[in-house]
Amino acid sequence: MASRDPIPTPASDPSGAGLVDFTVDLTSQEVLRRAQVMEAIGPDWDPVEVLLGEEAAYDLLYSGLDAEQQRLYDSLVASGVLPARGDGLAAS
């Protein structure tokens, strides 16, 4: 197998002559991607309404827990797995 030259490093090539500057500007691609996302979402998208809907879904998810489920929920909140919600108890 043929021996390969090591990649030049600043220590082995202080002049930097063996290094090539390689940059890619993705700014235009990011602008295009964001525009496409906003177009796909549509003009009727309301982020506040979406967040309120998510909060309502979480309230429903953690509602009506029996005693064992409430204990498990409380332990998950106490350990930081779930965020604390409202008064610290799941909705009944």
Provide tags for this entry.
46% helix, 92 residues, 3 helices, elongated, mainly alpha
Q: What does this protein structure show overall?
A:
The protein has 92 residues and is mostly helical. It is 46% helix and 0% strand. The longest helix is centred in the middle third of the chain and has 15 residues, at 27-41. It is elongated. 1% of the residues are buried. The mean pLDDT is 82.
Radius of gyration over C-alpha positions, nearest whole angstrom: 27 Å
Order of helices and strands: HHH
Determine the N-to-C terminus distance: 72 Å
Beta content comes to under 5%
Structural class: mainly alpha
E-strand count: 0
Provide a count of the helices. 3
Calculate the mean pLDDT score and round it. 82
Largest sheet: none
Chain-wise SSE layout:
Blueprint: H1 27-41, H2 47-61, H3 67-78
Write a compact overview of the structure shown.
This protein has 92 residues and is mostly helical. The chain contains three helices and no strands.
